């Protein structure tokens, strides 16, 4: 028996989101294409991405959503026809997204929205996580001694909720495996 359950009315809570990149439209194709890879290498993004499963699947899915031909050029043009706020708000509404919990510390750059700016810009409830390793890394550079670092680290963890965080995130298992 292969019964399907309709979950479309169940709100989505994305507990592993990252801040959106502030993007001007139109975005150069090379930059847009680069978001389909984690590689920092420009040649990989330009030469290899169009041949990846992620790119090909993404183009098909976005073509369906944007109601255009399933080609990179058509999807690129349709995406660039929409401001980021329109595109993101539409996608969140269409997927019944209720909450994004942001790991702002993981990939934050000057190009990303801050957590506060995302909450003010988009029609989406936004909360933030405290990413322990990045928090520790930043504190380590701000404190002259290990004892000062440790005091600041403990105080930061204990005060995380008061500073607006709804939880913690650690990537230790990515680095060491699950046998911690």
Structure, described:
- This protein is an alpha/beta fold and 180 residues long.
- The protein has a single domain, classed as TIM Barrel (Alpha-Beta Barrel), CATH 3.20.20.140.
- The protein has ten helices and four strands, in the order E-H-H-H-H-H-E-H-H-E-H-H-E-H.
- A four-stranded parallel sheet has the order 1-2-3-4.
- Helix 8 packs across helix 9.
- The longest helix has 14 residues.
- It is globular and about 60 Å long.
- The model has no long low-confidence stretch (mean pLDDT 91).
Main β-sheet, spatial strand arrangement: 1-2-3-4
**CATH class group:** Alpha Beta
CATH topology: TIM Barrel
- Sheet-strand content, in percent, reads 5-15%
Helix content: 40-55%
Inertia-based shape:
globular
Content-based structural category: alpha/beta
What is the count of β-strands?
4
> What is the CATH H-level superfamily?
Metal-dependent hydrolases
Return the CATH architecture: Alpha-Beta Barrel
**Helical stretch tally:** 10
Integer average pLDDT: 91
Q: Could you give the distance between the termini? A: 41 Å
C-alpha Rg, in Å? 20 Å
How many domains is the backbone divided into?
1
Order of helical and strand elements: EHHHHHEHHEHHEH
The major sheet is characterized as:
4 strands, parallel
Low-confidence stretches: none
Q: Characterize the quaternary organization of these chains.
A: single chain
């Amino acid at each position: 028996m292969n019964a399907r359950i309709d979950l479309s009315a169940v709100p989505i809570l994305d507990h592993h989101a990252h801040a959106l990149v502030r993007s001007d439209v139109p975005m150069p194709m090379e930059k847009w294409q680069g978001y389909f890879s984690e590689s920092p290498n420009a040649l990989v993004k330009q030469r290899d991405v169009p041949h990846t499963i992620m790119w090909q699947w993404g183009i098909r899915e976005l073509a369906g959503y944007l109601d255009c031909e399933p080609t990179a050029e058509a999807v690129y043009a349709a995406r660039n026809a929409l401001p980021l706020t329109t595109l993101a708000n539409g996608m969140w509404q269409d997927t019944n997204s209720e909450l994004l919990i942001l790991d702002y510390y993981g990939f934050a750059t000057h190009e990303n929205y801050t957590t506060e700016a995302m909450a003010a810009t988009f029609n989406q409830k936004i909360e933030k996580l405290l990413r322990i390793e990045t928090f520790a890394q930043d504190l380590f550079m701000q404190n002259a001694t290990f004892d000062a670092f440790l005091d600041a680290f403990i105080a930061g963890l204990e005060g995380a909720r008061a500073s607006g965080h709804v939880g913690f995130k650690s990537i230790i298992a990515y680095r060491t495996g699950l046998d911690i």
